[in-house]
Please model this.
Amino acid sequence: MSGRVAVVTGGGAGIGRAIVLRLAHEGARVAVLDVRPETAAQTLAQAGGAGLALACDVSDSAAVEETFERIAAELGHPDLLVNNAGAVGVEHVRRVTPLLARQRAEAAGEGVKTPLDALVRLTDEDWRRMLAVHLDGTFYCTRAAVRTMAPRGSGVIVNMSSICGLEGCTGHPHYSAAKAAIIGFTKAAAKELIVQGIRVNAVAPGHVDTSTMRGEVGEQRAAIARSTPAGRLATPDEVAATVAFLAGDDAAFYVGAVLSPNGGLLT
Ligand SMILES: NC(=O)c1ccc[n+]([C@@H]2O[C@H](COP(=O)([O-])OP(=O)(O)OC[C@H]3O[C@@H](n4cnc5c(N)ncnc54)[C@H](O)[C@@H]3O)[C@@H](O)[C@H]2O)c1
Model:
């Protein structure tokens, strides 16, 4: 990564922060983008300060365009883009998680009786926001990056999907739809862009032990870990390692691949 310019969206927390730290450790100069700029600045400081911390809501097309112009002017043209920014919809997760736990208990006894009423309670706004942050954001940032990668004939893009995009997560239809769409987008973009020297791939992690995850599903963490064959959640660093592999030259023949560090949840 030495001398390369990387852009990481949602770099202010969790997996995004781990990705920034890993890429910076390998010598990249990183533009840390986050809708919460103070957290992006904290990440950059932890990474040693060689880069930029910028406020950017990836679901805002104009803001993304402006941000990429600033990155090109102040840090250089990006060699690597990691589309990681994501939001789970905290209220929804808080409501559905205990119901899922009840369903798991019922499944071990006389059968599931409790309805989740997850899908029917989603508002238009919940649906739109989920797709806007994950899918629109991935498209806007990819488009902006490719504009400068294509003329230079090289670049790497890594998109963050989820196991929910591979198999569908009960109670999270909007999140699953967004993450599955990211996989479709990744594959089509990969086949189109490889002829211009740009590699596009995706990572689809299982359950990851981030502070957001800890806060929202705290009491259920043990059950989630037990439901994973490896018996634990992934660390953000393990996901960052997968991203770093796809970002590097060792992955030169990976085009449109989806790597899933998931502890055996889906084999
Ligand atoms: N934690 C998990 O178990 C898990 C599993 C699979 C996939 N993922 C995916 O990994 C990515 C990171 O998740 P995380 O667990 O680290 O989440 P997190 O909530 O800890 O961090 C997400 C970061 O994205 C930022 N963000 C949110 N909306 C944004 C926007 N519109 N524009 C720019 N930044 C925005 C947040 O401010 C935050 O800093 C997400 O795409 C998520 O869907 C997470």
Remarks:
- Residues 113 and 142 are 44 Å apart (CA to CA).
- The longest strand covers residues 29-34.
